[in-house]
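Table S2 (continued). Query chain:
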Amino acid sequence: MRFTSTPRGARLARRLVSHRLDAWGHPYTSPLNETLTLITAELTANAVHHGHVPGRDFHLSLTRTAPSTYRIAVTDTRGERLPHKPAAPDDESGRGLLLVAALADDWGCTPRSDGPGKTVWATAGARPDRVTGRGPAPAPPRPSAKMDP
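Corresponding output:
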């Protein structure tokens, strides 16, 4: 699908991926849905922030490549602004690609095949070690016998 190169377009793309995955049997709170939605958020935000050309949209595709493996591809028209090395953990910004690298099984960038620009893509699949970070709330701390004043 094609989206306006605006924060609203990025938000709508992220929601579309989450809804589509839910319809395909991966509920909203499943690890795969949450992982792919976060990857989509990062790639579309980068397309809006770094790949924006006035009057041009970005394109998003979500493709099932295996029974529980999906490929997200975000295409924009700024071919000269390629993704670069992910930020260091202590950098104040630029962590989007660091998150993508950590969450995706694979990711990369290719020149756009049908015009100027680039396609940044990532793949992720259902894995037993993939967790959401959600879970039961931690138990409250137990009161100590010794109380500090």
